[in-house]
Amino acid sequence: MENITLKEWLRQTHTKEEYQELFLNMDMTMHYIHDQGYGIISSRGFDGSPEFDINHIQIIQSKDRQNILFQDIDQIQPEYQKEIVRQNIYSMAYLAIKSYANFNDRLNHHFLKEHFDEFTVFLPEEDIPYYRGVIVNKARVYYASYIEERTKRMIQQEGENLSTSSQQRGNRLTKSTDVGRFYSQLEDHDGNAFIRLYIFPAIIVSLSLIIPLIAWVFALL
After folding, report:
1. In this structure, are residues 92 and 143 in contact, taking their beta carbons and an 8 Å threshold?
2. Neighbouring residues of 108: CB distance < 8 A, sequence distance ≥ 6
3. Per-domain residue ranges for the chain?
4. What would the pLDDT profile of 91-126 be if each residue is shown by its tens digit?
5. pTM (predicted TM-score)
6. Of 144, 36, 30, which is closest to residue 91 (Cα–Cα)?
7. Can you tell me the distance from the alpha carbon of 181 to that of 173, in angstroms, rounded to the nearest whole number?
8. What class is the 2-143+198-220 domain?
């Protein structure tokens, strides 16, 4: 079993698929932390915006699994929960874009927002709508939830043999959720972006591996 910091991991060469797996696992771990009433403490970048400290994020890698350990966590007061969750989701997206672009220098948050399209060349095509929504529009949507919604819609599109009434009913149910509304707003802009269907089953498998480790960490707090 290998235990390294995220900073050390990022120094190595990785494929886009490996980056996607990493940020999916980080996102699910973060979501679980939020569900327990905790948040990830962000440091402040040179322009005052929240950023994760990659020296304080551990990657525990075994032969068949990858677990994430955030060292900087603290309990969230209920009145600040939504804002902390939003900041954490933003910090994760910011970190992901810097990682995909192999951008080791300081990246101004305002510049990234205003020139987001210039960074899309580095991102997996199917993930561009998600990162645009979080960075440009400050959407409070988890990456795993976005992937799940995209997968559902891919399946719906391939089910064109179903009756029109069934399709309309499915769309109403999907758009009733926060992530459904978020994705609907992006369809016109990036409706043709492709998502690999193997990612969605990985959500369930990875989450079943990650939760026991995180639960153990909380038991020590």
Report:
1. yes
2. 47
3. 2-143+198-220
4. 999 999 999 999 877 788 999 999 999 999 999 999
5. 0.73
6. 30
7. 11
8. mainly alpha
